[in-house]
From TrEMBL:
Protein name (record): Membrane protein
Protein keywords: Membrane, Transmembrane, Transmembrane helix
Lineage: Bacteria, Bacillati, Actinomycetota, Actinomycetes, Micrococcales
Region (Disordered): 1-22
InterPro entries: VCA0040-like
Composition bias, Low complexity: 1-20
TM region positions: 99-119, 131-147, 159-178, 185-214, 226-244, 294-311
Length: 327
């Protein structure tokens, strides 16, 4: 991969890993893929970034986000310094909106629906629900390994081990209960949690639980609390803008190490999905009557992810073949 002299603070480069621009006819497919990401983000312990990897959207979404962030900064600088908005316009034109808009729409719709379905399901049937998701994440570990530019090395294993331990400890933190969080705390919490959305292996919902914001976010959405939702959106935008460019640089220039760390984060995050836990997220021994059902459900989740990965690989192969034919 050619190195780019542009620093993360400058204009983003077009990802060499991104697929060719799509068409509006594929919008329903992209919306469905975005919906899977939204569903993942509603469940503590599941990372939307992991699902983005599985359905083949990760590089494209990070590249698009970097262009949007650059456009926002260029717009502000252009207005303040009276340079005009031409640079911002150019950056926005680099975004594949035919891909991004359907994905975002699918994410938003399914996220809201999932907060009212999957989250309550996890509370009423925690053991089987965690079992399914644990199987899905375990099977997904193969995805970042397959995205490494070269075969895993000893140092990659070390990076993965450190990341796995960090994720294990983070997901083991006890939940915090905050009934009426201050708006500044909502902004801060959103800025932290949003970055877990884009990093595979880290769950934004799990971080919200640790920060005591998971239940208040649900209540604010149900109650249409404009101030709370606005503060959360502001924090998400600020946090994402501060991080996405660094992540894009890592994907371009340190992809091997980045994928090793992602693999470790995904392995360590399985701690949050151990089926048997107490109310404070402490791990419990398996219950004899549940073991058979848990194994079956975990295997089912793994098969579902395996099918998604196989489908995405075939889709990507067909897209590459079509691009080669067109050229």
């Amino acid at each position: 991969m050619a190195h780019d002299a542009t620093s993360p603070a400058d204009a983003p480069t077009t990802s060499t890993l991104a697929a060719p621009r799509t068409t509006w006819s594929r919008a329903p497919l992209h919306a469905a893929r975005g919906g899977l990401i939204g569903a993942a983000e509603s469940v503590p312990g599941i990372s939307g970034g992991t699902v983005a990897l599985v359905v083949g959207l990760y590089d494209e979404l990070i590249a698009a986000a970097a262009h949007v962030v650059h456009a926002g900064r260029a717009f502000v600088v252009g207005v303040v310094r009276r340079r005009g908005t031409a640079e911002a316009t150019v950056a926005l034109r680099r975004v594949d909106w035919r891909l991004v808009l359907p994905v975002l729409a699918g994410m938003a719709v399914v996220l809201v629906l999932s907060l009212r379905t999957l989250a309550p399901l996890l509370e009423s049937h925690p053991v089987p629900t965690r079992a399914v998701f644990a199987g899905m994440i375990a099977a997904s570990v193969a995805v970042p390994l397959g995205m490494m530019p070269s075969r895993p090395r000893v140092q990659d294993g070390a990076y993965a081990l450190v990341a796995a331990v960090a994720a294990f400890l983070l997901t083991g933190l006890p939940p915090v209960a905050i009934e009426e969080p201050s708006l500044w705390y909502v902004v801060l919490g959103a800025a932290i949690a949003i970055n877990a959305l884009v990093v595979p292996g880290l769950s934004g919902s799990a971080l919200l639980v640790v920060l005591g914001l998971y239940v208040p976010v649900q209540a604010a959405l149900d109650g249409r609390d404009a101030a709370f939702v606005g503060a959360f959106a502001l924090g998400a935008v600020l946090g994402f803008a501060a991080f996405v460019r660094t992540l894009q640089w890592l994907l371009h220039e340190r992809r091997q190490v980045t994928m090793a760390v992602v693999t470790g984060l995904m392995v360590g995050s399985l701690r949050a999905l151990w089926p048997w836990q107490d109310d404070d997220r402490g791990l419990l021994a398996p219950q004899q009557g549940d073991v058979g059902q848990v194994v079956l459900l975990a295997a089912t989740g793994a098969v579902v992810v395996g099918a998604l990965v196989a489908w995405e690989r075939r889709r990507a192969a067909r897209a590459r073949a079509a691009a080669d034919t067109a050229s």
